[in-house]
Design brief:
heterodimer, A: 136 residues, mainly alpha, Hypothetical Protein Yqey, Chain: A, domain1, 7 helices, flat, B: 744 residues, alpha/beta, TIM Barrel, Rossmann fold, 7-stranded mixed β-sheet, 4-stranded parallel β-sheet, 28 helices, 42% helix, 11% strand
Chain lengths: 136, 744
């Protein structure tokens, strides 16, 4: 599979087209907009698409694991802050039953369209079972 | 046993305040090559690892599983594992093998294989390897900014100064956890005042860390600690999967992530399983890679004293830095926690990272006095700023720092303290008074700061954290109060977050707010003349320490109106009477009129002549033109002396008593320490010269030995000698008239 190389840094190569998580064009994130109070946190937050582009850059530069992490990050942009923290805590050792971990994986997959994250959680569920790291 | 004075003193040396122990593998107290360390092996069946370092899959612990399924490039593994370790070790130091080739090969290496490669390398070879394998071409440095009283204006001022001093990342932490949002805010404002583009973090518990990031107050996180055994990992309340998830969570909010690991942590936490520190760290590094972290903070970090208590500890710590770079990870290479009581030992250890250069040479240089360091760090601190800058200048090495003037520091500290004062006012936080601003500008530590109302500050911090106020509110506050540049830098950090370029390996921002990472500033070292070189501009910056002086006016004190009481008569003739010749250098009393320690040449001559006269003899003054060398001046004088005794006197004050018949470089007495000479010494020299002439028993004039004098005055000595040498001419010794009467 050959993909067209993405030019790095994006702040230069994609200055006109980059959009924040809110959909706001990066070009519209200006001092005047800030002064006018027209910006929200989502306007200075990275989008899933951009994270996927950064993932592709990492992959093309020989950092495949980092690329996978950025893909998972792209998926997690859809998950609200508090929910992300809850998921993380569920994954910590001894916090969840096997069924709870599987449920988390399902929720990631169906509610948030986060298959890579779901995969990571399912894998953890299997290993935790073998290694005795599920909730006792 | 009788007591040796020397051993008694040695016992009190700083280095002997440390603990040195012999290895004890069962307790994990061994830096490398423990008997329990496995041999490298890798079995792959149907595209799946079934055996890793001697352990079959059904016996894998969580680290083995994670490494087998996430960290290894199985396509590269077959060749990698079949390549003799010594060959890979040699590639690391071979300038003809590029970094990319090694990265590719090492991607297929198991933890035991990685350690096996290191086994063949000494520290010099590892330093070569580190210089080549570092991901980012340009080295950098990271700072800690905290203070014991968690004073916002002081945090901002210290962060601003640290940014100006060149640190590319600045981290803070908390004494009281509730201060977190305020401390993060203070160093954000401070750092962006000092230099736009400095990345910042606030090291706190993970969920709080994420909250700060979500408010836009931080841009990186290196709090993700991992460990090399399952027991330690679980005691740390994580697994490789939970940490991988957390990495993705941080990255999803635009935060650059870096794991933390390091030799010694497993032994410290009681779960080393008899394995060596380096083997366990190799496992950590593979987990770091597998989880997709762009980099690692390693180099033993807070455990540094443990490997350092063991033989080969400092070598092992360098080895773990090297291993990280071999895995393509950014490395913030330790040198942060206190590593030694001994300045010699600390500095020597630093050189292993400083000379090759790493992505961050220290993963936390204390930008304030170490007593203010809430990380327990401060191996190098604000007191050492000038030492560090001098080391850069000595070796023409870019250690990531730059010298700044006091004036620049005060200006930037003022701006930062005022900026945070403005933000506190605009956002309705407890006011920062003008007195506090003023104190923060000038303070070295928080004891110089006025007290704040802690209860009110914490209540405001509690309110700020869940509120709608965020980095954008801060930008507006700064804009309203006229801090346009700081506001623009903060907003640019927000814009950069949208692009996410700084999530890539080894990313920092340069002085023009341009991202610089292993993608666009990749280390391309391939021997002399390649890779990172200190540019002409950077070299100017490194060498121009504020304390550098022009040597041109160094000898101004020694120059002045020629001595009025000293006049040249004509060519000197050999004497016949029992006299002393005082032979002076060619610049004496004319081009130079004072000795190196400021004695007037006339006074010096008077003292010598007084000494001679006290023994009933007279002295003739003769100026030597053909040489500026002290021994030669004395030697020529002795040939002219009626008694055969002469005193040779260089203009800078160096003196010799010479005697006809002695070899030129021999002497009766030599006084090389001109800075220690007093008029009393010169008079005593006159006395002794006369006594030699009279054939009397003579005790040499006692000389003061100050071995530091040469160190202090060598430049001046060189310039005085150069000045005297410039007066050398092909002219015979000249008789001088000195207008002086003995005061007897």
């Amino acid at each position: 599979m050959k993909t067209r190389p993405i030019k790095y840094p994006l702040i230069e190569s994609a200055a006109e087209t980059l959009r924040a998580a809110s959909g706001c064009l990066l070009a519209d994130v200006t001092a005047d907009a800030a002064r006018a109070g027209d910006l929200s946190m989502a306007d200075i937050q990275i989008s899933a698409d951009t994270l996927r582009m950064q993932a592709e850059i990492a992959r093309q530069s020989g950092y495949p694991q980092q690329a996978s992490n950025l893909i998972r990050a792209a998926e997690l942009t859809a998950v609200p802050n508090a929910e992300v923290l809850r998921m993380y805590n569920t994954l910590r050792p001894g916090r969840a039953t096997h069924a709870e971990l599987v449920a988390l994986a399902d929720s990631l997959e169906t509610d948030y369209h986060a298959p890579e994250c779901a995969h990571l959680v399912r894998e953890a569920a299997g290993v935790y079972q073998i290694r005795g790291l599920l909730q006792k | 046993m009788p007591i040796s004075r020397r051993f008694q003193l040695l016992e009190k040396r700083e280095v002997n305040r440390e603990t040195f122990v012999e290895p004890w593998p069962e307790a994990g107290l061994i830096v490398a090559d423990s008997p329990a360390d496995p041999q490298p092996s890798l079995r792959i069946e149907a595209g799946r690892v079934t055996e890793l370092d001697g352990r079959p899959r059904d016996q894998f612990d969580i680290l083995d599983t994670f490494i087998a399924d996430h960290s290894l490039d199985l396509a590269a593994a077959e060749i990698a594992m079949a390549t003799p370790s010594i060959d890979i070790a040699r590639m690391l130091v071979d300038i003809n093998v590029p970094r990319a080739e090694i990265l590719h090969l090492v991607a297929g290496c198991t933890p035991a294989k990685l350690v096996d490669i290191i086994r063949h390398m000494n520290v010099l070879e590892m330093m070569m390897g580190l210089g080549k394998m570092r991901a980012r071409r340009t080295p950098a440095n990271q700072a800690h900014v905290t203070n014991r009283r968690e004073h916002p204006a002081l945090l901002a001022a210290d962060a601003a100064e640290a940014a100006l001093r060149g640190f590319a990342e600045i981290e803070t932490t908390v004494g009281v956890a509730r201060y977190a949002p305020f401390n993060a805010l203070a160093i954000l404002i401070g750092s962006q005042t000092g230099r736009g583009g400095v990345l910042t973090q606030c090291a706190v518990e993970e969920s709080l860390g994420l909250e700060l990031a979500m408010k836009g107050l931080t841009t990186y996180a290196e709090t993700l600690s991992i460990y090399g055994t399952e027991g330690t990992f679980v005691d740390g309340d994580d697994t490789p999967w939970s940490k991988a998830f957390l990495s993705a969570a941080y990255a999803s909010r635009g935060v650059k992530i870096r794991f933390t690991s390091g030799t010694g942590s497993e032994a410290l936490m009681g779960h080393a399983q008899g394995c060596s520190m380096l083997y366990l760290e190799a496992r950590c590094l593979l987990v770091t890679r597998g989880a997709g972290s762009q980099g690692v903070q390693n180099g033993s970090i807070s455990c540094i004293a443990l490997p350092e208590s063991l033989p080969g500890g400092v070598r092992a710590v360098l080895a773990e830095n090297l291993l990280a770079t071999m895995l393509g990870l950014e490395v913030a290479s330790g040198n942060d926690a206190l590593a030694s009581h001994s300045d010699i030992r600390k500095a020597a250890k630093l050189m292993l990272q400083f000379i090759p250069g790493t992505d961050f040479i220290t993963s936390g240089y204390s930008a304030m006095p170490r007593r203010e360091n809430l990380f327990g760090g401060g191996n190098f601190d604000a007191d050492d700023f000038d030492d560090y800058n001098v080391l850069q200048r000595d070796m023409q090495v870019d250690g990531g720092n730059r010298p700044i003037s006091e004036q620049e520091a005060l200006a930037i500290r003022t701006e930062a303290a005022r900026a945070i004062q403005a933000v506190y006012t605009e956002l309705g936080f407890p006011a920062i008074t003008d007195d506090e601003v003023e104190a923060a500008v000038l303070a070295h530590g928080s004891e110089e700061m006025p007290s704040r109302n802690v209860v009110a500050d914490l209540a405001a911090a509690d309110k700020f954290l869940p509120s709608e106020q965020n980095i954008l509110s801060v930008v507006r506050a700064l804009q309203i109060r006229g801090f346009e540049k700081v506001a623009a830098n903060l907003l640019e950090m927000g814009r950069q977050r949208v692009a996410g370029d700084y999530l890539q390996t080894s990313a920092i921002f340069d002085r023009n707010f341009k991202v610089q990472s292993a993608i666009n500033d990749v280390n391309d070292y391939s021997g002399p003349g390649s890779g990172y070189r200190v540019s002409a501009e950077r070299w100017q910056e490194i060498q121009n320490l504020p304390q550098v002086k022009s040597p041109r006016d160094f000898i101004a004190d020694q120059i002045g109106e020629p001595c009025a009481r000293l006049a040249e008569l004509g060519p000197a003739r050999p004497g016949v009477s029992p006299e002393i010749i005082v032979a002076v250098g060619p610049a004496f009393g004319t081009e130079l009129i004072r000795t190196i320690n400021g004695l007037d040449h006339e006074e010096v001559l008077a003292a010598i002549l007084t000494g001679v006269a006290s023994q009933g003899l007279v002295a003739r003054v003769v100026k030597i033109y053909r040489t500026s060398d002290c021994a030669a001046i004395g030697y020529i004088g002795a040939q002219l002396s009626g008694s055969g005794i002469a005193i040779g006197l260089q203009s800078r004050g160096t003196t010799i008593i010479h005697k006809r018949g002695l070899a030129r470089l021999s002497n009766l007495e030599l006084f090389p320490q001109s800075p220690s000479m007093t008029l009393e010494t010169y008079q005593a020299i006159g006395v002794n010269a006369a006594r030699y002439a009279l054939g009397m028993v003579t005790t040499p004039v006692p000389v003061q030995v100050d071995n530091w004098a040469r160190l202090r005055l060598i430049v001046k000595t060189a310039l005085l000698h150069r000045h005297e040498t410039e007066q050398v001419q092909d002219q015979p010794p000249m008789e001088m008239r000195f207008d002086w009467e003995p005061d007897l």
